[in-house]
Amino acid sequence: MSRLISDLLGATEPMFSLAIRQLEELSDNNGADIRLSAEIIGQVQLKTKQLGLDPHDTTGKELYYALMEHVRKNDLHLMHAIGGKDRDSPSQLMPLMKKAAEAVKLNRKCWVLKKSVAKEFLKKTPPPTIMKLLGYKSIDSMLKKENIFEIYGALRFAEGPEWLNNFDAQYKTISPSDFEQRDIEIVQMPADRWGEITKPFIHKKRHNITHLKELGVILMLPISLDSMPGITITVMPLLFHYLNEIRLYSAFFKLQQVKPDFAQIVIDTLIADPGEAAIMVGQKIHWRVIQRYFGKLENEYHPEIFEPHVQPEDLHWRKAEHILYEIDPELAWWRDLDYVGVMHQGRPVSLNLLDLAVSYSTQTPYKERAVYHFRESLWNELFERYMGHKVLQDQVLKQLDNNLIAPETIHKSLIGRG
Fold first, then answer.
1. What is the widest separation between alpha-carbon atoms in the chain?
2. How many C-beta atoms surround the C-beta of residue 198 within 10 A?
3. What pLDDT was estimated at residue 410?
């Protein structure tokens, strides 16, 4: 068993090692973890050299700040690629990023809640704070004049817990007939309306992109700052990351529509992403791992249990940084680095672009460096590789067939979040 992967994940031992040993036995000791470790080491050495450093004589801090400098250069290059002139100006760059993201040729189809149903929910439970903020006394007038996706995007920031609980209770009435297929939309929320109420979320998350998975909407929250370093290199990959997330849950909801408790599954997924997961040797596997594994196969193999609701195109996805290459080929430097990192002083230095971009934008010091996206990607990559073995693949498919799974958060008892 590779100790490197355990260390990079911050896994709890000996539980993690026992799980990997069982996976190896079931897959005839195929050595997936050893090969993955070798790939990671090779990529770290190669990228360290490309940054002008000696792989055998470079501290974690030196590597981190060299990566920060590379992000800075990429940010400038990407900013020019989308037509920007002021690299740190949110007001100038946000609309340019939206335009560039919408121009990329991608499958944007998703199976989501009908707009008519979403409007009916608001009519039955008008949001008092938002109506007061926008100067409306009539919910019908507000729905007639306003973008419903902006309103839904603002609900979680503006309304209190009691109102949100009452509003969410309406989802208990939904059925598959309340869903439709349409394109994912990117909505830029104006600063003069929503700037103040979204500040706490942006401060906590350290970025301004979020999504409404049940409506197929990506939200670009307003940034009140006049200047923000690294905004382009941070926001652009997040836009594509959330596009993938919406399609991920779209496929999941399609798969779950045959279940009698469909409405409760949707509610649980929206509120906390909980529930039972497929199990591989005692490890909970998120729907994300399953979707991406079969998505990579494209039309080579499409399990019968997905039919007729989930088609191969529903599972297809592309990494966020790969999509960026179409906008700026220079970013191909980050190809397949999402699950690559190296241990230094008990904590990984992540080579994941999303981690590094957020760290650069927020000027995060070395000791507090981000590793969240890296660890999630490494966990997913590891279990995707074991799913390639027929015994384990059949095990997961049998569980899907018997009791269509709900998404599950990454196994927090095994992975240390950073």
1. 67
2. 24
3. 29
Smallest Cα–Cα separation from 290: which of 216, 366, 392? 392
What crossing angle do the helices spanning 372-387 and 287-297 adopt, rounded to 10°?
60
Rounded CA-CA distance 106/353 in Å is 21
Q: Give me the residues paired with residue 412 across strands.
A: none
The number of CA neighbours under 13 Å toward the Cβ of 159 is 21
325: number of Cβ within 10 Å: 16
Tell me whether strands 217-220 and 209-212 are parallel, antiparallel or unpaired.
antiparallel
Residue with tokens 């699950």: 339
What is d(CA 38, CA 36) in angstroms, rounded to the nearest whole number? Answer: 5
The length of the chain, given as a count of residues: 418
pTM: 0.84
Mean pLDDT by groups of 10 residues along the chain of 418 residues: 88 84 77 92 98 96 98 96 93 96 92 97 97 96 96 95 93 96 96 92 88 96 88 94 90 86 88 58 68 64 58 63 88 94 95 95 94 92 78 64 42 33
CA distance 338 to 7: 17
Which among 327, 313, 378 is positioned nearest to 350, based on CA atoms?
378
- How far apart (Å, rounded) are the C-alpha atoms in residues 373 and 227? 25
Structure tokens at 49: 């050299």
368's tokens: 């507090």
Per-residue model confidence (pLDDT) at position 18? 84
User: Could you tell me if 63 and 53 are in contact, meaning their C-beta atoms sit under 8 angstroms apart?
Assistant: yes
Query: What amino acid is encoded at 92 in this protein?
Result: Q
| Residue among 206, 217, 198, 202 nearest 152 (CA) | 217
Amino acid identity of residue 211, one-letter, is H
d(C-alpha 210, C-alpha 182), whole Å = 19
**CA distances (Å), origin 31, targets 1, 2, 8, 21, 389:** 8, 9, 18, 10, 12
Q: Which residues contact 220 (CB under 8 A, 6 or more apart)?
A: 94, 97, 98, 186, 187, 188, 189, 208, 209, 235, 239
- Given this model, what pLDDT does residue 413 score? 30
Q: Tokens 């279940």 correspond to what residue?
A: 259
